DUF2306 domain-containing protein (Ahniella affigens), 295 residues
Amino acid sequence: MNGILSMPGRSAESLVDVPHTLEPPARSTLPPSAQRSLKALRLSAGFWFLIALVGQWLFAWYIAMVYARPVLSGTPEAINNTAKITGYIVGDGLGNSLLISHVLAGGLISMLGLLQLWPWLRRRVPGLHRWNGRLFLALGMLGALSGLYLTWIRGSRLSDLGAIGISINGILILIAAVLAWVHARNRNLGQHRQWAIRAFLLVNGVWMFRLGLTAWLLLNQGPNGNTAKLDGPFDLAWSVGCYLVPIALAELYFRAESSRSPTRQWLSAGALGASSLLMALGVFGAWLMLWRPHL
Ligand code: HEM
């Protein structure tokens, strides 16, 4: 599959005409056992997509209500009505602007990002796919750079160790976004696809942190390795796990979809299905504990 995706001489427009995002290769050329496992892989990816869509849009709605509404109505200081690490400080023009652009970029990313992985939309409206992709990568980089500023220059961090985990995430976002962009421009379509998916998962590390944390709290019926400063053993492990685990699952998926081994595909489908169920618990937990109370 990657061979097809990497065929030289394709136009930029053909970026949207090749198997992409969540689509495994055509099934018709495979033996029946491999067709079944590939179908399971495709279904598990679709299941993951639906749960992620609900979770992303609920997060976007929270951001719209808690941040965009006060900013648009001319009372940006009202974002402090919900607990913040630093929040809005009267007189800190640069810090406030970066905080507001950081969270509003996060809202747009959560609203628009997953559309990039929806094959139907990409085929029907390829221009939208290209512009949305550029917007996503630009906003992701803006989010990473402004986040690094807020954490290390403005001093908005609960603990140094926890801040290191999210800062590595920020640096990886910059690397993955640049590589996704460069491979698209150079028509390395297989590489572009994989780096775009990695960039998507990295950009959503902070969202996944919230899902994992609240799922953990629900499963343990309360804190277990958590502290108020988010520097307990679980908090610190998850501050890097929230992007490394999704990236590892994506690597498993990439290998399974291009493999002719049904076992590998069943394993990958099982891992994706099980992690989607955990993700569903996290969406429920984040909605219950973090987002709904502020709406
Ligand atoms: C590009 C991906 C990112 C997105 C989508 C994102 C999104 C957000 C959102 C929505 C908030 C508000 C949280 C809430 O009210 O619950 C927030 C706050 C914050 N983010 Fe990010 N973020 C991203 C990356 C980062 C990175 C890489 C860092 C640090 C290196 C960072 C540092 C912060 C800090 C310090 C705050 C708290 C500011 C305060 O409360 O004063 N973010 N982020």
User: Anything to note?
Assistant: The longest helix spans residues 32-72. Residues 1-22 have pLDDT under 50 and may be disordered.
